[in-house]
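=== RUN LOG ===
request id: a7f3
mode: sequence -> structure
chains: 1
length: 389
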Amino acid sequence: MPDRPDHVYLDHAASTPMRPEAIAAMTPFLAEHPGNPSGAHGAARATKSALEEARETVAAVCGCRPHEVVFTGSGSEADNLAVKGAAWEARAHDRRLDGVVTSGIEHKAVLGACDRLECDGFRVVRVPANGDGVVDLDALAGALDDRTAVVSVMLVNNETGARQPIKEIARLVRNAAPRAVVHTDAVQAPQWLDLPAAAADVSLVAMSGHKFGGPKGVGALIVRDGTRLVPLVEGGGHERGLRAGTQNVAGIVAFATALRITHGRRAEETARIAALRDELERGLAAQVSGFAVNGASASRVAGILHCTFDGVEAETLLLALDQQGVMAASGSACSSGAVDPSHVLLAMGMPRERALSSVRFSLGYASTYADIDAALAIVPEVVAKLRVT
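=== RESULT ===
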């Protein structure tokens, strides 16, 4: 049996370690190639060439055309550009297009963008999810009308790992709100799903590099031909005029490299990681009373185990686990000294007490059986001690 690792990192859904190949691809553009890709001299042309090769790589993996790939500074920026940009463009074209439909389980980047649009006079409907964390399609259909401008529903939920029925949602939108633009936050998807198939029916697809082994601070938005957006950042005409500012060439090259490798190894890695996740789930269920999987009946991606430990506050458990070298996360956030339950879990109809006892363990390409063995040796013991105290 392998030695127990010093640290057990089970928070890959928050950020995954960079793949070595991405670091190697990135390094020359930090140390050797200073050119601005918008320039005209040789150094500039070298970085411009690398930028466009990266764009072609992303397009090939995502099943789109290179010019449809817009690089951003993060997945949150990509989400904001998509949701706000499409809504503002629609209203500029037709003042009657004032409806925005999203779900209550979205990442706060989308929910925050919708809050801003609501302040800006848009009608925003936040559709609930069922107990397994899947968007209520009947509620979504009822929220659509001929004035709907934007529909935004994520591809994979970042807390529960539940896949959302994007193809069905796109069909509903085509039938009930044909002028609406459909956006999906696919930040948690590339490492588990084939994007050309999973996101084929939507006009805007957001991604973030550090979720699949790329660097932090680099994202991308696929903007299908015919989809018009009002930019958030204006100035130099970069990225088809949709995102001004000199591109982070080093980060973009690493993003594309990580995405390419993730795509090539997806089948193998997904099977291995699913086995690790299932082993962790079985082991916790066998050793810990009051353990339950949240969204157990949903179609979940391989890397996420979201679960409840009855009678144990998640924040207390996470702190105790961290002291033992096990790093995980919860959907809770501290605000003014108060711990609030996850908005995702509440949108699923979960009672507040159970939501405050829920933890997310998330795995990635770097996860090992030694990590799972260590977690199964530590987590039950920590839970038992917390219940005693």
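=== NOTES ===
The longest strand covers residues 304-309.
The two ends are 33 Å apart (CA to CA).
=== END ===
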